[in-house]
Amino acid sequence: MTTTASPPVVPPDSHVPIPPSERRAWLLACAVGVLGVAVLVAVLTGSVGESTSARTVAPPTVLLSAATPTPGVISAASALAGAQEQSAAQVPDAPVHGRSPTPIVARPDSVQQRLDASRFVAPTQTHIFTRWMEGFYPIYGIAQSTFGVNWLLLASIHMQESAFSTAPGTYHGLNFAGCCGGPMQFNVTNGPVSTWQLVSNSYLYGKRPAYYDHMTSTHPSIYDDFDAIMAAAHLLSADGAEFALNGSAWDAAYDYYGHDATGVTYADQVLARAIGWSQHGFCINCGVEPAMVEAVHAAYGAPVLAALTAAPPAPAGRSKH
Question: Which residues pair with 76 in a beta bridge?
Fold first, then answer.
């Protein structure tokens, strides 16, 4: 006869260890897993791996949507009057919100005019990255608030001059004509007091950002982003530019380049680009709309170009009496 042994009876007061609960371990493992998935998703979407500034820096607010200009007596007269003013070396010694009596006019030589005429027609082939532009946004904003100049006009000149500082040689040496340098291509050779010398201390009027790309060790410098952009804003303000993207802004852009046929093309494109941005939003890699360039030229550029190309009056004949 086979008998089965019954389990031993454990007295109720005996110490029998109880296996630890695995609930906490499982909860911890699940939490770690969820966190890992979240990090992976963040990395794949680009939320992790970028600097804080890259996620938060945005262009300054667009102040207004400028109307597409149309030809008229007022617009033509404004542009023509600005073109006929005589330039002189005048140092703006304070932020100026209005045209100075004697505008500061750049004087590009014939070599630069010929090369620029081709450069302004050819579209840029450079793709500008968003992160590259974010270092300029705070500077545009400071320049706008300091000198009362629309930052879109300032940014458009930055694009026209150096493709937002991506053109070769922007931060060293001088340009192909051996006269100008830096992000805003200031002339340092048209002295005895160069254009750069007239406005080089403009950085003193605004608070310099704590950090930005291409900060130089000495100031002022045409290669320092803040120094150069502040100087450009001051120059535009001294030449009559304000927040409005109108004939005064065209005049200031025309003065910025120089009073010649290439300067008309320059001002037409600069203002057309700024107006387009004001209407459709700031777009780094968008080209200038041909229709907008035509509208700006008809309103502001055509009268000036006509005056430049008009045949000089024939000398008066000798009187028979």
Answer: none
The amino acid occupying position 199 is V
Place of tokens 């000149």: 157
Distance CA 40, CA 111 (A): 56
pLDDT at 88: 42
Residues 43-87: pLDDT tens digits? 455 455 544 444 578 999 998 899 999 888 676 666 666 655 544
- Using alpha carbons only, give the angle 226, 232, 237 rounded to the nearest 5 degrees: 125
Detail the DSSP E strand segments found in the chain. Answer: 180-181, 186-187
Contact status, residue 238 vs residue 100, Cβ threshold 8 Å: yes
Q: What angle do CA 231, 188, 129 make, to 5 degrees?
A: 55
Give buried/exposed letters for 105-131 (b at 16+ CB in 10 A, else e): bbebeeebbeebeeebeeeeeeeeeee
Tokens 């579209």 belong to which residue? 123
**How many CA atoms are closer than 13 Å to the CA of 39, on its beta-carbon side?**
6
Looking at the DSSP bridge assignments, the partners of residue 239 are 99
Q: Which residue has the tokens 């907008």?
A: 292
Closest CA to 165 of 206, 136, 201: 136
How far is the C-alpha of 23 from the C-alpha of 256, rounded, in Å? 73
Strands (DSSP E) along 95-195, which ranges?
Answer: 180-181, 186-187
Say if CB 247 and CB 300 are below 8 A apart.
Answer: yes
